[in-house]
Design goal:
Number of strands: 10
Order of helices and strands: HEHEHEHEEHEHEHHHHEHHEEH
Shape: globular
Mean pLDDT: 93
Strand order of the largest sheet: 2-1-3-5-4-9-10-8-6-7
Oligomer: single chain
Largest sheet: 10 strands, mixed
Length: 428
C-alpha cells in the first residue's frame, strides 16, 4: 500500500491497512488519546463514561499502518503524576520492579510493553511522562520535538508542553512507531513537516548504533544530586558509548535550577484553563444536583476530580488570577525562554546532551502520595526538555544493586530525532 503515514489519513486508506509497516503488531494506547467508539477516561471518574466520536490523528495513522490496538492503558489522572497511582481506577504495577511504581503519567503504557502484553505503546509526555516510565520499567521511550507529532484527539493537560510519543522494547522499534505517527496534520496548526526543517521521517534507519565521533555534552546540573547508584549506572553507560567511539565533556545549564518551578507554574496554569470544560454539562459526569448551576458545577468537579487534579487546578488558577499573573506566570515564561537559550548554547557545542533520565530509582508504591513536592522534584531532569520543546529519548542504562531499572536520557536539537535515536541504539 502506498499510504503516506506522515500525511493526513483518509477512511479509505484505513480500510486497506493489512500490509502496512506495523501489520501484525499490537500497539496499546494511553487513555487520554481519543479512540472512536472506545471509552477514553484519562484515568478520571470525571470521564468514566466518555466515548469519543472520532479517532485521534495518531490512532488513525496506527490503523492505516496495520497495527492492532488491543486496549487503552492506565495513567495518572489527566496526566498529572509521576507514578500512575493517581488514576481513579487504581494503581499500575511495575512488571520490572515488584512493589515499585512504573512511573507516570504513561505508566500503563510502559508496563504493558515491559510485561510483553503489547508489542508497542503510545504515551504522552508533558514533563517527562514518557521518559520517566520508560526509565522505571526498563524500556525505551521517545519524547519528540514539539510539533513533530499531531496532538489532535489528545485530551489536553498543558498544550504548549505535551507531545505524544512511542514506548518500545528497543530503540529501533520505538523509531518504527515514531515513523508512523509523525508528520503534519491539517487539524493541528502546531505541527511541522520535518522535510521543511532539513530532515525526514526515516527514523528506524538511524538506529544503526554508530556513535563514532559523536560528541556528548553532560550537564553537571542534571547529574549532581542524583542517587549515588543512579549516577554510577549513568557513568557506566557513558563509558560504554565512549568505548564505541563517542566523546564527552561537561556543559552548563544554569537555568535548570529554576526549570521545575517554571514548568509547574506553566503546566498548572494551562491545566486550570483546559479542565474548565469539565463541568458536568459540556463534558464530564453530572453533579446530579437540581439546585442552581454553580452548585451543580461544584459538585460535579468535587466528585469527578481526584486530589492531585484539584491541587493543580487550584494552583494554576491562583497563578493566573488578577494581581498574580505577572508575579508567577509571566516570570515562569521568562524562565522558559532562559532554559531554551541554555539548551541551544549547550547543543551548539555537542551533538547530544546526556543525563540520568530520573535522578532516583523507581519509588516504592505509596511512597510519594503524601508528599507531592517530592514527586514534583523527581521531574528535575525531564521537565527542562519540555520547556525547551526539544526531542529526548530514554534508554535502559542498567540496574541498581537492588535490580531497579535506571534510564539514560539523551537530548538533541529541535527535530534532531535521528541523532538521539542513533546514539540510543548503541545501548538498546
Amino acid at each position: 500500500m502506498s499510504t503516506d503515514y506522515n500525511g493526513y489519513v483518509t477512511e479509505e486508506e484505513i480500510s486497506g491497512s493489512d500490509d502496512g509497516p506495523l501489520a501484525g503488531k499490537t500497539v496499546a494506547v494511553k487513555d487520554n488519546i481519543s479512540t472512536k467508539g472506545v471509552r477514553t477516561t484519562c484515568g478520571s471518574a470525571m470521564l468514566d463514561d466518555y466515548v469519543p466520536p472520532y479517532d485521534a490523528t495518531v490512532v488513525r495513522r496506527l490503523k492505516a499502518s496495520g497495527a492492532t490496538i488491543p486496549g487503552k492503558t492506565n495513567m495518572d489522572e489527566f496526566g498529572m503524576g509521576t507514578t500512575t497511582e493517581t488514576s481513579a481506577f487504581g494503581a499500575t504495577e511495575n512488571p520490572a520492579a515488584d512493589g515499585h511504581v512504573p512511573g507516570g503519567s504513561s505508566g500503563g503504557s510502559a508496563a504493558v510493553v515491559a510485561a510483553g502484553d503489547a508489542d508497542l505503546a503510545l504515551g504522552t509526555d508533558t514533563g517527562g511522562s514518557v521518559r520517566c516510565p520508560a526509565a522505571f520499567c526498563g524500556v525505551v521511550g521517545i519524547k519528540p520535538t514539539y510539533g513533530l507529532v499531531s496532538r489532535y484527539g489528545l485530551i489536553a493537560y498543558a498544550n504548549s508542553l505535551e507531545q505524544i510519543g512511542p514506548l518500545a522494547p528497543t530503540v529501533e522499534e520505538a523509531a518504527e512507531l515514531l515513523e508512523v505517527i509523525a508528520g503534519p496534520d491539517e487539524n493541528d496548526a502546531t505541527t511541522r513537516d520535518a522535510t521543511e526543517v532539513g530532515t525526514d521521517y526515516n527514523f528506524a534507519a538511524a538506529a544503526d548504533g554508530d556513535v563514532e565521533g559523536l560528541s556528548i555534552g553532560i550537564p553537571t546540573e542534571l547529574v549532581e544530586g542524583a542517587d549515588d547508584e543512579v549516577v554510577e549506572t549513568f557513568w557506566d553507560a557513558i563509558d560504554e558509548l565512549e568505548a564505541q567511539g563517542a566523546s564527552y565533556h561537561e556543559v552548563e545549564l544554569p537555568s535548570v535550577e529554576h526549570a521545575v518551578e517554571a514548568y509547574y507554574v506553566i503546566a498548572m496554569s494551562e491545566a486550570s484553563s483546559n479542565l474548565a470544560r469539565f463541568d458536568g454539562v459540556r463534558y464530564g459526569t453530572s453533579g446530579g444536583y437540581e439546585g442552581n448551576w454553580n452548585e451543580s458545577f461544584a459538585k460535579a468537579r468535587e466528585e469527578g476530580f481526584g486530589p492531585e487534579v484539584k491541587r493543580r487546578i487550584l494552583l494554576g488558577t491562583y497563578a493566573l488570577s488578577a494581581g498574580y499573573q505577572d508575579k508567577y506566570y509571566k516570570k515562569a515564561q521568562d524562565a522558559r525562554a532562559w532554559v531554551k537559550q541554555d539548551f541551544d548554547e549547550a547543543l551548539s557545542e555537542a551533538d547530544v546532551l546526556a543525563s540520568p533520565t530520573m535522578p532516583i530509582p523507581p519509588f516504592e508504591r505509596g511512597e510519594s502520595l503524601d508528599d507531592p513536592l517530592k514527586m514534583y522534584l523527581a521531574d528535575a531532569n525531564t521537565t527542562p526538555v519540555n520547556l525547551a520543546n526539544l526531542p529526548a529519548i530514554s534508554v535502559p542504562a542498567g540496574e541498581t544493586s537492588d535490580g531497579l531499572p535506571v534510564g539514560l536520557q539523551l537530548v538533541g536539537p529541535a527535530f534532531g530525532e535521528k541523532t538521539i535515536i542513533r546514539a540510543g541504539s548503541a545501548l538498546a
